[in-house]
Amino acid sequence: MSEFNAPRRGSKSFYPRVRAAKQTPSMKGYGSENKPLNFLCYKVGMTQVVGKNVHKASPSFNHEVVVPVTVVECSPMKVFGVRAYTKAEIGFVVLSDVISETHDSKLERKISNFKHKTSKKEDKGTKKDVYTIEDFEKELNDIEYFTLLVNTQASFKKTPDVTELFIGGTKEQQLNFAKEKLGKEITINDVFNEGDYLDVRAVTKGKGFQGPVKRFHVRSLRPKAKKQRIVGSISPWTPATVMWTVARPGQMGYQNRTESNKKILKISTDVSEVNPKTGFNNFGMVKGQYALVFGSVPGAIKRCVALRKSIRPAQQRGVQLEKVDKIIKK
C-alpha cells in the first residue's frame, strides 16, 4: 500500500491571498453582438426549483428533479456616461468620458464631482479637458473601443455601485449604441436570455485571519506534539527562508473569485413566484426583476455580483433543466 503524499495544499492561481481592493467586482465582456456584454446584480439567497431533466446521459433523464438555484435581483442600471479607450505603448488607456446631463441623485454619494457641474474648456494645446460625442466622432480613427459608465439602482442601497459595461460590435456600432443609451436604463433582458451560460464574479465571504488547517486544509499533528494546528516544518536551515508555497496563517475569504458556466434558468418580474411569506433571510423581499441561476454563486447576501456570457464552452454534466416548472418557496 502506497504512503499518503501531499506535497502542497492550495491552488497557485489564487495567490496572493489578500483582501479584495473593492467590493464591486469588475468584469470584461467578450462577444461580437452589438449590445452590452456584462451586467451587475445583487445576491438574494438560495431556493429550489422543480423541472424535467433533459440531459440524456443522466440517470434521471426525462424525470422531474429538484435542483438548487440562486436568486439574484437585477434592477435596471442607469447609463450616466460613455468612455473611450485609445491605444498606448502597453495595452489601452482612457482617452476621455462624456457624462450625461441628467443622472441619478444618489450617484453624488459615490462620485463627489457630480455635485459641481463643469463647463467645457479647451487648453491652448491639443488636449481637451471635457469631450463631447462630436469630439469622439472626429477622433474615431484614434479610438479603439467604447464602454458605458453605469450605476446600479438597488432599492436597499443608498450608495449605488458603479462599473463599465463593454459593448460588442465595431467601434462605429459601439458609439451609435452608446449615443442611443446615454441617460437611459439597461435591463438584464438587453444583455442575457433564459438558457444562457454565464461566468459569475464576486467577492467571497470574508472569514478573517485563519490558521493553516482551515486556510489550506493541512493535516493537524498528533496530540503528542507541542502544537497540533500548525505546519511542522516551515523551511530548512539552508536556505534560511520561508517559501511562499508553505501553508501559513493569514487572510481567508473576501477575495475576487470567478465561477464559469452558470446557467440562467429564468428571468422574471413576477416577484410573487419567488418571495417567501417572511422574505429571504438577511435580504427581505425581492422588489424588482430577478433571475434564477443554477447552483451557487460566490459572495454574501446583498453583495454585488458581476455576470457575463461564458467565454468557455459549456460541458453537459449532471442535471440539465429545459425550463422551470415550479419554484419551491422556503
Write structural notes for this entry:
This protein has 330 residues and is mainly beta. It has 3 helices and 14 strands. It has helices at residues 133-138, 171-181, 212-216; strands at 38-52, 64-73, 77-87, 92-99, 143-151, 162-166, 185-186, 197-203, 206-210, 250-253, 256-268, 290-294, 304-309, 326-328. The radius of gyration is 24 Å and the shape is globular.
Task: Explain the layout of strands and helices.
Blueprint: E1 38-52, E2 64-73, E3 77-87, E4 92-99, H1 133-138, E5 143-151, E6 162-166, H2 171-181, E7 185-186, E8 197-203, E9 206-210, H3 212-216, E10 250-253, E11 256-268, E12 290-294, E13 304-309, E14 326-328
Question: What's the gist of this structure?
Answer:
The protein is mainly beta and 330 residues long.
Provide key terms for this protein.
Elongation Factor Tu (Ef-tu), domain 3, 3 helices, single chain, mainly beta, Ribosomal Protein L3, Chain: B, domain 2, globular, 330 residues, 6-stranded antiparallel beta barrel, 5-stranded antiparallel sheet
